[in-house]
């Protein structure tokens, strides 16, 4: 995609976020834009960085690590948004500032052990599985509090909040109903005394509903960069 086109899409996405925020009586600055750059070349990331975008998310380590290396002279914050498995924790702990998909104590322990001493704690969100469909990523809401307490005990991890990827819905109301559940789950953790400041929810097709439900960070790929090529399996 050419640079002007990408700049326009970036401006349009910022406008979507700002108008969704204002409709809910919120400030645009309270909703961070995480640019999901999986499937996109390093040059597209450079163009968005020139527009002032600083936070980028990647899902696939094989693809991400060369791009991180190529762009290392830029002052960017990298978020890992792909599925976390044991064989990926070391690379995530060594190369990323954030991980959004923590859903098991075992993975939390590995990330904590493998986070390099010279780096600040890894910022983490717990992924919550809102629908009753085992096999998908995420922990059931009823187990989120116990995992959050465990994460809080680990010095090399910093618990920031909750994340979800709800099933696709076609209406605003149906989308928002899922995000309301994550908001509710966050309220329960806050009431239990945990400190959280991040609700990582909302993607290209449902960012308005997510912001209406209290999202503080939207993860946007397609709306920014256009359609991706077919994705690898993991
Ligand atoms: C790919 C991806 C996104 C971005 O999705 P779009 O619909 O392209 O905006 C957001 N979050 C996660 C976890 C993803 O894997």
Layout of strands and helices, then pairs:
Layout: H1 3-23, E1 32-36, H2 42-50, E2 55-58, H3 61-70, E3 77-80, H4 89-95, E4 98-102, H5 105-114, E5 122-127, H6 141-152, E6 157-163, H7 172-191, E7 198-200, H8 207-212, E8 217-220, H9 222-225
Parallel strand pairs: 1-2, 1-8, 2-3, 3-4, 4-5, 5-6, 6-7
The chain binds pyridoxal-5'-phosphate.
Pyridoxal-5'-phosphate is lined by residues 36, 38, 59, 81, 165, 203-205, 219-223.
Which labels suit this protein?
single chain, 234 residues, alpha/beta, 16% strand, globular, binds pyridoxal-5'-phosphate
Architecture overview:
- The chain has nine helices and eight strands.
- It has one domain (3-223): TIM Barrel (Alpha-Beta Barrel), CATH 3.20.20.10.
- The protein has 234 residues and is an alpha/beta fold.
- The protein has helices at 3-23, 42-50, 61-70, 89-95, 105-114, 141-152, 172-191, 207-212, 222-225; strands at 32-36, 55-58, 77-80, 98-102, 122-127, 157-163, 198-200, 217-220.
- Helix content is 42%, strand content 16%.
- The site of pyridoxal-5'-phosphate (PLP) has 13 residues, from β8 and α9.
């Amino acid at each position: 995609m050419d640079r002007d086109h990408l700049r326009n899409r970036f401006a349009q996405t910022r406008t979507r976020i700002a108008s969704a925020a204002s409709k809910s009586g919120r400030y645009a600055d309270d909703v961070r834009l995480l640019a999901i750059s999986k499937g996109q070349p390093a040059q597209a990331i450079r163009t968005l960085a020139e527009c002032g975008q600083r936070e980028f998310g990647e899902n696939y380590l094989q693809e991400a690590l060369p791009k991180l290396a190529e762009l290392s002279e830029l002052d960017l914050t990298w978020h890992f948004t792909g599925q976390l498995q044991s064989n990926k924790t070391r690379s995530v702990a060594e190369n990323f500032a954030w991980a959004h998909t923590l859903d098991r104590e075992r993975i939390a322990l590995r990330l904590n052990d493998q986070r390099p001493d010279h780096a600040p704690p890894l910022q983490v969100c717990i992924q919550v599985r809102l629908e009753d469909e085992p096999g998908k990523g995420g922990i059931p809401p009823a187990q989120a509090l116990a995992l959050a307490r465990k994460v809080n005990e680990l010095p090399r991890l910093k618990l920031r909040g909750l994340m979800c990827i709800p099933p696709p819905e076609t209406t605003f109301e149906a989308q928002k109903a899922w995000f309301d559940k994550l908001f509710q789950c966050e309220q329960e953790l806050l009431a239990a005394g945990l400190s959280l400041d991040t609700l990582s929810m909302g993607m290209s097709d449902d960012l308005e509903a997510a912001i209406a439900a209290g999202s503080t960070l939207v993860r946007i790929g397609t709306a920014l960069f256009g359609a991706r090529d077919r994705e690898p399996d993991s």
